[in-house]
Amino acid sequence: MKTKYINYLLILVTLALWSCEPKVDEFVPSAGSADFSVFVSVGDSYSAGYIDGALSDYGQTTGFTNIMATQLKSVGAGDFKQPMLLAGTSVGSSLNGSYKLQVVHGKLMPMPTTGNPELFTDPTTWINSKGPFNNVGVPGAKSFHLLSPLFGDPTQGSGNFNPYYTRFASNPGVSTVIGDAMLNNPTFFSLWIGGNDILWYALGGGTGSASGLGSHDITPDLIFKASISGLISNLTMKGAKGVLCNIPGIDALPYFSYIKYNDLELTADRVTLLNSAYAGYNQAAEANGKPKIEFAEGRNPFVIADAGAFLGMRQMKEGEKVLLSALSGILGDEHWGSATPMPDNESLTITEIGNITTAVDRFNAIIKSAADDNDLAFVDANSVMNDLMHGIIIDGVGYNTEFVTGGMFSLDGIHASGRGYAIIANAFIKAINAKYGATVPMANVNDFIGVEMP
Predict the structure, then answer these.
(1) Can you spell out the DSSP letters for 221-249?
(2) Could you tell me which of 169, 161, 135 has the C-alpha nearest to residue 59?
(3) Domain extent listing, the chain
(4) Which of 203, 314, 345, 320 is nearest to 260 (CA)?
(5) Which of 80, 37, 66, 232 has its CA nearest to residue 147?
(6) Per residue in 199-228, pLDDT tens?
(7) How many angstroms separate the CA atoms of 53 and 94, rounded?
(8) What pTM was computed for the model?
(9) Radius of gyration of the chain (CA)
(10) Is the pLDDT of residue 293 over 50?
(11) Residue 20: is its pLDDT beyond 90?
(12) What is the pLDDT, as a whole number, of residue 155?
């Protein structure tokens, strides 16, 4: 009898505990107050899906906008048509193909494969009549380019138009990127533009102007603000809602952080040779009260060309940056940074970095103000990248901004990897959900491909 009584109490306790278990609500995707039925993406290389130093069909399907479009389908989005390249083709701005890791000079280096320049030069490969396209991201685009018909006009001559846009423009030389976006009658949009308004100055090693309209100039504030305003006016004219994104600083980009200012590693024998080679320079520098160029065993600052320095050269200072493009010259027969001063366009001085940093701050204030004034969602990509610099963990996998090993960036050191694009897509989705009360599901970052090792 006592045993039966105990069993009866155990059953009652089990039933009581079961009835107290919390009920987990099933996730139900919802569009909230937004209409995602016709989604368009407007922007530059990031929106286009540029990856590993080139645009490719792989990058177009792996880009953050396509990931977003896939997730938005659960809340009513329709097809997301892209100006796809042929399968297996790729083309970079230097007509190269996608980068692959190879062993060069005893080190793993990203090396370009053979590209498909015919995508630019052969009009029979163009797809102008196959639009309109939902993704009108154009590699190399600055803010004001998206409003200009000259941007896709091949009659302007090589170097004066953008072939990425020309190949899919509805009417090359007449149409504009923003006009082609509006052919879709979008109900929702993403706009991420402005990076190249600053980045091209950085990629040129600061050799452009801090305020101008040249290819390697930082866009003047008034032009940038007017361009952002004009783009948003077009996109919202029929009541569409959307999301804006700001500009990350260059510190997070491996292209500007992988090679340190003092990464010149020297043996004792090499030190003797270099100090002998610069003896004449040092004698003249000492006579004129200028800093010498001297080397010691171990790590040393690189020697760079600098028109403002004594005899046009000097050693780098802490805080200055070496561009990733200098790597082959450093490791190769040119001996950049040691026997030969590194060319001016392969490094950034403290002043040039200051020009970039202040421009990022100014432009980001313009973008945030535009989002607030037009009641749009806002993605703080600058903060996302800053977090990644310190490292984040997603479902047990760590990500940071280290070149090759960090998982965030592809082999060009500027654009994201497949997993990096998924991280960006989720940042956009979080901003959309917060602004419009939506419940768009996140992408599973670890399902995507990171950097592929040889």
Answers:
(1) HHHHHHHHHHHHHHHHTTS-EEEEE----
(2) 135
(3) 39-258+350-447, 267-348
(4) 320
(5) 232
(6) 999 999 999 999 999 999 999 999 999 999
(7) 9
(8) 0.92
(9) 26
(10) yes
(11) no
(12) 95
